[in-house]
Amino acid sequence: MKRSLYTLGHWFDKRLGFRDSLLPMLTHPIPRAAAGPMGWWYIFGSASLTLLVIQILTGIGLSFVYVPSADKAYDSLLDLNYSQPLGWFLRALHYYAGSGMVVMVLAHMTQVFLHGAYKYPRELTWVVGVVLLLCTLGMFFTGQVLRWDPDAYWGLAVAGSMAGRVPWLGPDVVRLVLGGPVIGGDSLSRFFALHVFIIPGALLFFLAIHLWLVIKCGVSAPPVPGQVVDPQTYDEAYHRELKSGVPFLGDALLKDIVCSAVAVIAVVVIAAVVGPKGPTGPPDPTLGGANPRPEWPFLWLFALLSLSPPEAETFIILVFPVLLIAVVFLVPFLSNRGERASSRRPVAVLAVVVAYAVLGVLTYQGATSPWSPQMTAWSSDPVPENLVRNSTPLQLQGAVVFQNKNCRNCHALEGVGGRRGPDLTMVGTRLTRDQLIDQVSNGTPGGGNMPAYGKQISPAEMTALAEFLTNMRPQGMPAAKPASARHDEKEYP
Amino acid sequence: MHPSDPAPAPPEALPERRSFLRWLTYGLSAVAAVVMGVPFIGYLLGTWKKPVEWVRLGPLSRFPREETRTVVFDNPIRRAWDGVTARTGVHVRYQGKDSQQKDQFLVLAINCAHLGCPVSWFPQSGLFMCPCHGGVYYATGERASGPPPRGLFHCVWRVRDGELEIQAPHYPTLQDTLTESDNPTRRTS
Q1: Hey, what domains does chain A have and what are their CATH numbers?
Q2: What CATH number does domain B54-182 carry, 1.10.15.40, 3.30.43.10, 3.90.950.10, 2.102.10.10?
Q3: Which among A160, A186, A288 has CB closest to B79?
Q4: Is A335 in the B-facing interface, judged by CB distances under 8 Å?
Q5: Does B146 touch chain A (CB under 8 A)?
Q6: For chain B, N or C: smaller number of CB within 10 Å?
Q7: Which residues pair with B103 in a beta bridge?
Q8: pTM of the model
Q9: How far apart are CA A8 and CA A309, in angstroms?
Q10: ipTM of the complex
Q11: pLDDT tens figures, A338-387
Q12: How many CA atoms lie within 13 A of A175 on its CB side?
C-alpha cells in the first residue's frame, strides 16, 4: 500500500517536478531567532492569510443564495438570515473574519514597521503589502454596499457627492461610481463586480507577489540593537546567518498555526454570539431618517471630514487620502538602512503611537458622530421637568417655542437631544438676553452652523424663547452680564 | 562577461523577409489589441442615459399656496430591476401666480447639496434639515447654515392639463445639477 502510494507520488512528481522546485522553496532556511520566542512577532501575516481563506470560503458560500439585484438583494439577505440553514452564521462569519483580517493586516504592518523589516532588501515587499492593505479595505468598502440597506443606499449617495467634487471630470466620475444617472441596480452590480471579481483578483495577484518576495528576500531576522542595515553588507551577513537557520516549513510555523487557530476560533465565536450584521431595513430612499456611516475601518476618515471646516472638505475627500497612501508607500524609501530595533528608533515608535492615538480618537468620534442632528429630538425628547418646574407662563411658552422650532434637533438639554450645537442647559450663564436674541435671529455670523431664525419666528415667540433661555441656569448661578457692565464687577473678572 | 569568454559572433543581419514578418507579427498583435481594447474600455467607461421624461406629481389643488409638500414617486430613470431603490421624492412649494397669471412652483430635490443625504421639511420652523451633517435650508431652498456649499437643487417643472409635472431627476451633484441654468461649470447631462 505504502509502496504503491510512493510509486504514484513519484509518477506525479516526475511530471510536476515539485520536489526539485517547490519543496526547496518551502523548506528554505529562515534565521534561527525568528523561530525562537521572537517568532511570536511573526504570526500576524499568516493569520491574515488564514482569515482571507475564510473570506473566500464564506464569500463563495454566500454567493449560493445572495442575489446582486437591486430589487431582490435585500430579500435574499433576509432569507440568508432567517431561512437558509446556517445562512446567518455564514453572513456573520464573513463580516467578522473580514474585520479580523483588517486587524491582522494592520498588526502585521505595525510589526514590520516597528522591527524595521521593510528596510533593504524588503522595500518592494512593503510596497506590495500596502497594496494588499488597500485591497483589503476596498473589499470592506464594497462589501458594505452589497448589504443593500439604507446605509448602503445613502453611502452610495455620499460617495457619489464626493466624486462630484472632482474638478472638471466630476459628473463623469459620479456616473462611473454609480453606474448610471441614479443610485440603483447598476450601482449594486458595479460594486458586486468589484467585490467578487476585480478586487479579489487584484488581491490574489499581489498576494502571490508578496509571498514570492517573502521567499525570495527571506524572512527578516529579529532586530538586534546596534546591528545596522547596510545594503552593501546586508546580503552577505544574512546568508551567513542562514547557515544556522531552520527550515521555513517546519517547527517555525507552529506559532503561526497557533495564532491562526486562535484567530479562527475567535471570529467563529464572535460570529456565533453576535450574529450577522444587518441589513437594517429595505433600501427605500423615501423612508427618511438616513444617517449613513461607513464601516469601522473608515470611521476615522468620516470623523476627520465631519469635524473639519467646509472649506477643507474637498481637500480631505480628494487629496488627503492620496497623500496619506503616498507617505505609507514611501516609508522604505525614506529610510531603507540603519538601525532596525525599535529601541533605537524613537521617531518610528512615536509615529506608531501618534498614528494609533489619532485613529482611535477619530474612530470613537466617528462611531458616536455627535455632529449629526437628531431629527426627531424636537418631538420625542421632552424638556426636562426640573428645568421648567418654577417657570413663569412666559418661560413655559418659550420652552414650547424651543421644541416646536426644532431647536432641540441640534441643541441638547441636559445631554438629551442633538449635539450639533452646544448644550443649552446653562446658556443663561453664558449669554445675555440681547446676545441670545441676536444669536437666534441672525444665526452664526458669516453663515456658520446655526441658521438665522429671524424670519422663522414671530416677535412674540422670540420674546418667550429669550425669556426661557435667559433663565436656563442652575439655581444660584448669576445670569450673564453684558461685557460693558463687566469691569465694575470685581468678583467676576 | 568573463574575460576568457570568446567574443560573441557579430549579430548577423536578419534576412529582410524574416524582419518584415516580425514587424508584421507586432503590427497584427497591436491591431488585435486595439480592436479588442477600444470597445471594451468604451463599455467599461460608458453609462446609460435616458431621454427627458416627465413625471406627474398630481393636480394643482394638491399644493396649497406657500406650503411645502413632499411628493414621493417612482423615478422613470431606472432599470427594470431597481425595486424600491427607484422610489424618490421632491419637495414642492406652490408660490401663487406671477404677473402673467401663471402658476409658479418651486420643486426641490430631496438630496442635500453637501453630500446627498435626504433633507426633511419642518413646517414648524420653516426649514429643511439634513440628518447627516446638519445642513439647513430655508423654504426657498436657499442655504441657511451648515456645510452645504449651495442651496438645494431645483427640478425642472411644468403644468400640463392641470397637473404639475417635473423632469425625472438624476442624482444631482455640484457640477451636474438638475437645471441648465443651475450648473456652475460645464453642462447638464
Answers
A1: 24-368 (1.20.810.10), 377-483 (1.10.760.10)
A2: 2.102.10.10
A3: A186
A4: no
A5: yes
A6: N
A7: B97
A8: 0.90
A9: 70
A10: 0.87
A11: 999 999 999 999 999 999 999 999 999 999 888 888 888 998 899 998 88
A12: 16
